[in-house]
Description:
alpha/beta; 8-stranded parallel β-sheet; 10 strands; homopentamer
Amino acid sequence: MTERVREILSWYGSDNPGTLTNLSRLLNHGRLAGTGKLVILPVDQGFEHGPGRSFAPNPPAYDPRYHFELGIEAGCNGYAAPLGFLEAGAREFAGEIPLILKLNNHDLFGEEKDPDQATTGSVKDALRLGCVGVGFTIYPGSAHRLEMYGRVRALAEQAKRQGLIVVIWSYPRGSGLSKQGETAIDVTGYAAHIAAQLGAHVIKVKLPSAHIEQEAARKVYEKEKVPVGSLAERVRHVMQCAFDRRRIVIFSGGPAEAEETILSEVRAIRDGGGFGSIIGRNSFQRKRADAVRLLGQAIAIYRGEMK
Amino acid sequence: MTERVREILSWYGSDNPGTLTNLSRLLNHGRLAGTGKLVILPVDQGFEHGPGRSFAPNPPAYDPRYHFELGIEAGCNGYAAPLGFLEAGAREFAGEIPLILKLNNHDLFGEEKDPDQATTGSVKDALRLGCVGVGFTIYPGSAHRLEMYGRVRALAEQAKRQGLIVVIWSYPRGSGLSKQGETAIDVTGYAAHIAAQLGAHVIKVKLPSAHIEQEAARKVYEKEKVPVGSLAERVRHVMQCAFDRRRIVIFSGGPAEAEETILSEVRAIRDGGGFGSIIGRNSFQRKRADAVRLLGQAIAIYRGEMK
Amino acid sequence: MTERVREILSWYGSDNPGTLTNLSRLLNHGRLAGTGKLVILPVDQGFEHGPGRSFAPNPPAYDPRYHFELGIEAGCNGYAAPLGFLEAGAREFAGEIPLILKLNNHDLFGEEKDPDQATTGSVKDALRLGCVGVGFTIYPGSAHRLEMYGRVRALAEQAKRQGLIVVIWSYPRGSGLSKQGETAIDVTGYAAHIAAQLGAHVIKVKLPSAHIEQEAARKVYEKEKVPVGSLAERVRHVMQCAFDRRRIVIFSGGPAEAEETILSEVRAIRDGGGFGSIIGRNSFQRKRADAVRLLGQAIAIYRGEMK
Amino acid sequence: MTERVREILSWYGSDNPGTLTNLSRLLNHGRLAGTGKLVILPVDQGFEHGPGRSFAPNPPAYDPRYHFELGIEAGCNGYAAPLGFLEAGAREFAGEIPLILKLNNHDLFGEEKDPDQATTGSVKDALRLGCVGVGFTIYPGSAHRLEMYGRVRALAEQAKRQGLIVVIWSYPRGSGLSKQGETAIDVTGYAAHIAAQLGAHVIKVKLPSAHIEQEAARKVYEKEKVPVGSLAERVRHVMQCAFDRRRIVIFSGGPAEAEETILSEVRAIRDGGGFGSIIGRNSFQRKRADAVRLLGQAIAIYRGEMK
Amino acid sequence: MTERVREILSWYGSDNPGTLTNLSRLLNHGRLAGTGKLVILPVDQGFEHGPGRSFAPNPPAYDPRYHFELGIEAGCNGYAAPLGFLEAGAREFAGEIPLILKLNNHDLFGEEKDPDQATTGSVKDALRLGCVGVGFTIYPGSAHRLEMYGRVRALAEQAKRQGLIVVIWSYPRGSGLSKQGETAIDVTGYAAHIAAQLGAHVIKVKLPSAHIEQEAARKVYEKEKVPVGSLAERVRHVMQCAFDRRRIVIFSGGPAEAEETILSEVRAIRDGGGFGSIIGRNSFQRKRADAVRLLGQAIAIYRGEMK
């Protein structure tokens, strides 16, 4: 147990030892084991965007076993997916990579201006599948957000009692925001803060832009000269918003991007004090060797082995 | 136990032996026993479309015993129906054909653009009636779909704990789709994928057309040159979407059709790697002898005894 | 146990001794211990208004430990916050300051004319975190108010059974009111009364203006010559509305204000027979030393050590 | 919060902050607040031995309020009693002294060689009465002990989940022991260890004699030269048995004794590293002034104010 | 994941992936990780025999943290202990060594010819403490055995549903056996078989003697010439009894022994196809360095690094 992991665990004083054990399993797995940094492989894209759109660019990824293997081979800390994908590999890969069961999901059959999520798994499912934790998406900005917060928190209470960790994907979206506002720095910080207040152990947000969405926030950011010019500065601000760096926040980029873009984002996360990356489309939509190499480079940057 | 059935069972590693036992009962019953192929007789038409419309073309079919007898005589793998129909024959035909209790149903008393389903049975009902599994319909495309997914998954969790199998009829419908989109190839693949992610063991979809509904999907299908020209190719693509052929998918045609149409669809399912057919109206709306002959031909095609 | 605290406890004759014990803990903690007066530190601003807007003026306040320390150092009676903030310090500061878990919260992702609140904590959470009570916000004036009253009361029933106290933030807001009406004297008194009728032990309202919002009320106020000219008179009237001073009511000011404004409000609360202040933004958005001095002065006024 | 109390709380890493809060309330109350030492007043004598025998020597002690007042006046850390006694004063003395609800009791209507205990209260009772914890007696040595351990542990699990502390009175008694063995040093250490293994936060045992009861133990004590000659040495050994001093153990003497005997026992507890005394009969069977003086002297010894 | 561990997991086809995950955690931890062999440190001796008798030979072992450290330092696969001992270290050592919560315990306060066990923990305790499994003792031979089997199996059912593993200590004892019979080869094999039939994943028995206790068994053993002359042969026979080596069986020796005796027993376990050792008294009653060396040698023998 490294000092850094011990320090991180110390921030979660209200959790039982079971939850700390599962958190330490996540932090002590893969090539980033013990560093306090994480790279997580999430594959809910098939549910969220449709299987053809998600996997046709790299057809082996239609097979649920592919993602277990990719996460293991690349040395990721964990693999997060909906019920069906985990059920399809949990026995075969039992104990080989920490699993996070996504307990809610959304599809693209509807053009809702105020999206919601379906509950697609349970805490009991997570235990029977051997997961270290459960995950949820919330949509700050949606008219359904208050109800979502309530559902997520109730399931999170159950999960914590059973010694599982809680991961919240906080994705601002809905009629309460402009399109640009979804990744605005103030909104992203706010989204991370809400997830932390709902009791998340690990928070996932998108990398923020320099745009400020809410007028009342803008006044304060300008008056207080909150530095948000560079991506690293924005990551640092999000970390502040997440209990002053005392909650684990990991970042995703956007849709498929060039390798160099991704790696420069990883460097900004590192420089801003972020805890790591969650890389979905940019891994499983590449050919396996390319994905392993890209994830390996991200890991190398977090390990300080590569600039 | 054939190698093929053993292989199929191996895909369901998160299920308990009870569920595997029931799945093997389905796969090892009837004239397709052991082949890994299935022809299932579903009769929820009376509930879904009204009894006169469903059974007047072949009045003996008003009698619930008729469908048990038809399924048995034709050598189907199983028979699926709502609560009342199964209750009306389960004692008399106990042990003669695997039963699937449809746990939700919809009627035509309303012209909803966003249909939903009533919960019309329970897992306990399925156990007391000796069923091998339970079935559900979901409507991807309906504004109620997220709530439907949640209800289905919760009942599926119960069913699996008790050793039952879960069959999902995934029927895209509702305001999130054009009429043509209901059977679009991208939508059908997506619908099969969602059912698989919700934990279905057996998935039932309609045979897809070559239409592509969602713009974001079209771009990928075109760029990646996903072959969807022939029906067999489309079946193959749907199978990919269902965990790369590691979930059982069976197909239905549309409304009453000519025999030859049906059989050529069966050949396309076979050629595309589908697992079989679910033939309702096209069986019970024909005279019994015709239905038995038609089902027998479909079975013969799947058995490789007929081209 | 002072006579005054004993008297206050005597007003809560339907509560069990567990609730009285926790109420006495709140009344007997900090520099106002035993006086029957309270100064409470509430920090749900991060959730309600966003973290940047709340904490950028005083960055150490991003850290959840900061607020525990501030409440302890300033000698407040208690500290109230949402789940995440309490979870992040409850072990480290166990037993050092009475805690109130805010069980519902609202954010600013939406411009609802009729705001509602998400349920963000449970009575069980309050017990496992060692809280003396739970808190809720209601919005008299919102179209959702009746449902909010129902939810709050149901949770309050649970809380009382477990010996916890119930604090209600009663904030008139929504389509049923004019903007000016939100702090009108008749509305504020009404809001306090509703909270008392819902069973609150401690009620938190905003300092009222002399505006009278509801015509029917105005007639009576004018006819009966209810004195509402000075702030102290208005506080006195709110206290009447709260069961003729037999319920604890504490008051907040508005957004960040000058020190002298705040202290003159404290004097009006004292003169009007109010029980104290709940000071959020005006404490944690100041530098720590300034906040401690300001809270100290408010306490000194309530203690009669300062005019 | 003193360093010593903080250190003690750190030993209970598997408990939630609620339990730590209640433990800190016990450790921070009365004249020993903050020292890490405790003097607790237990009054279950009326139930255990009969009221006349218990209270006739000091008739005011028939009144349940008497014991609250005695505990408060003497500056004890807490007061422990059965349901009825606590119900009779919990409202009147709410918040004035930490309460421990004894959840099981035994009477003298029977001369069992293998005593058992009746369950006479619940965790819910403890919450509604405002207690910091619950207490149980176990009888290692009784033929019923295994069942007692099971009942106590199950209730303790409930109590801990609700944030209460668990106190176990571990009183060897029954057919598995000689009379002399009930206070034997090996048996007392063993009894303390069992209570700790059952998850007690605070353990209460009798002051041990130098007798060694179990032959197998005697061999080891002699071979390893475990020092048990003086009372302080025996206290030290019991503390070792209680997780090497990482569990709070408090000691009682026997039946009514001379003041000087009691104080010399207190000195031995102090010298042996014990956490304090639980003084029942020797306080409430004396006249109030005498009892207050005696308890005061015990406290003074623990505080180092008196030799 | 080694081939051997994969093979072992394949024997537990009725368990869910959660249980396989926890079993793989046990098999993949410590210096024997991946070999399929195990050395487990059990410390319930304090409860079972008394703390003085258990820990006086090596006083640092009174401290519950000592055993966590010993298990970690020696590279054991896991550490098994009663509730109190695990509670006292589970937070501090979260994630550092797989834990097994012993759910029942027995003490020496009684000379029962038919011993029983108290239930001293729950499956929920195991989850909140982050354990990989739960453990139980049964006493085949005791008049209480049938009830014990029932209690253990019911708790095991719960544990398996939550993804935990089940370890059974099968210790023949009681009026149904002679003293010599407790370790008889027929009885030991029988005890292992009963544990396997009760659904244990891991079985712990004592090393058997060549004595045959039951006459009916003796006839068959003699007729079939079951080889039980050497210790390795007897281990091999016990493995046969445990589902022909398809259940994990580990062996303990008796009371404190010479190092060479222990190591020659380890060799016999290895030669007989046993899965490993559970070494309690012979580790924690030695000085730490000696214990680490001894456990290291046992591990080296199992690893094939030492003869």
